[in-house]
Amino acid sequence: MRAAVVHEIGQDKLEVLDDVEAVGFGPGKVRIRIRATGLCHSDVSAMNGVLPQPAPFVPGHEGAGEILDVGDGVSGLSAGDRVLMCWLPACGACASCRRGQGHLCLAGFMNAGTPNFRRPGGDVFGFAGTGTFTEEVVVDAGCAVPIPDDVPFDIAALIGCGVTTGLGAAINTAKVETGSSVAVIGCGGVGISAIQGAKLRGAAQIVAVDPVASRREAALRFGATEAVEPEALGDAKQRITAGEGFDYVFEVVGKSATTRTAYETTRRGGTLCVVGAGAMDDHVRFNMFELFFDEKRILPSLYGGGDVLRSYERAIALWRAGRIDLAGLITHRVPLAGINDAVAQMRSGEALRTCIEL
Fold it and tell me: Rg of the Cα trace of the chain?
């Protein structure tokens, strides 16, 4: 079986191998044939060590495909079912799940320490307990979420991570108010989805901030009312808010410097929503006076900050109704053999989302 493998953290390129075996099938598990998978920035962050991940590993967590086989004890799923991959399934029984915060359930993270694959040289992990840059993968049944027949695999793959994260940040976490002003810092696939979420919520001004011209142009097509380079954000703040700051600012980069900029760009009493996944040793500083005096809400948003299955259903309904554009997020397509082209497109900012077709 073919799969793209990172042998050690810090490796710039993936190696596509044909001697990888999906392992672990048994009770409570399903085997999935991956048909489409998106390259998310988190995959690149795992490759370079920003996000913790044991190696060697198969990246990818934003995938969709068909179930090949189901293990004993699995209900509601059958061979042939079309599914998207949920990399953070809720167990339904832990304290977070009982509080209605299934997106904070740690059961899915526990899977990251168990190898999903094997090569002649030893075990291989799957990123975030999944690993979708492969032809087949074995995962817990909770990771396989059925999708309707009218949802293409490439669209379903995006809903499995980037779209759910961005839309949810605006709708579930920040709860953007009608008529408000919004700035989104970082306009890849997740940032564009946050822009679409802010538009759905009725924001009056949505300023997209990104150093890449093509991404700024794309942001305007997806609902931003203005798009600026990072250096021009201060001017936009002055023009649009009379210097007060935006009602909502979304940080979708995952760095302390942009988080600090986002805080300073948020008005007193406004909301900073932290969406980007950053490194454990990258610290952002606030002084105690400003936290008290400015009363700005700092809201992290993990995986869209809401019930994941409900978020999937909502994204599909909005897509069907033409209220959000998901096909337009896919700017590039490559076969698995071209995975390193996808990585280059992500790092350069050329792509919003690259779909790897298997």
Answer: 20
Cα dihedral sign, 130-255-250-288: positive
Confidence of residue 112 (pLDDT cuts 50, 70, 90): confident
- 98 CB contacts (<8 Å, ≥6 apart)? none
Rounded distance between C-alpha atoms, residue 16 and residue 342, angstroms: 13
pLDDT at 109: 74
Q: Residue ranges of the alpha helices (H) in the chain?
A: 41-47, 95-98, 107-110, 153-159, 162-168, 189-200, 213-221, 233-241, 256-265, 288-294, 308-320, 339-348
Q: Are 152 and 175 in contact (CB under 8 A)?
A: no
DSSP 3-state assignment of 59?
Answer: coil
Output the CA–CA distances (angstroms, integers) from residue 129 to 27, 133, 164, in the order listed.
17, 13, 18
Whether the CB-CB separation of 105 and 90 falls below 8 Å is answered with yes
Q: For 253, how many CA atoms within 13 A lie in the half-sphere containing its CB?
A: 21
**∠ CA 350-9-303, rounded to 5°:** 60
Q: What is the DSSP letter of 217?
A: H
The model's pLDDT over 162-185, given as tens digits with 9 standing for 90+, comes to: 999 999 999 999 999 999 999 999
Give the mean pLDDT of 271-280: 96
123-144 as b/e, with b when 16 or more CB fall inside 10 Å? ebbbbbbbbbbbbbbbbbbbbb
Helix (H) or strand (E) holding 137: strand 136-140
Contacts of 170 (CB under 8 A, 6+ apart): 176, 182, 194, 196, 197, 198, 200, 201, 248, 250, 273
3-state secondary structure of 245: coil
Residue 45 near residue 346 (C-beta atoms within 8 A): no
Look at residues 251, 255, 39, 32 and name the one whose alpha carbon lies nearest to residue 127: 39
Contacts of 145 (CB under 8 A, 6+ apart): 83, 84, 85, 86, 160, 309, 312
Q: Report which DSSP code applies to 177.
A: P
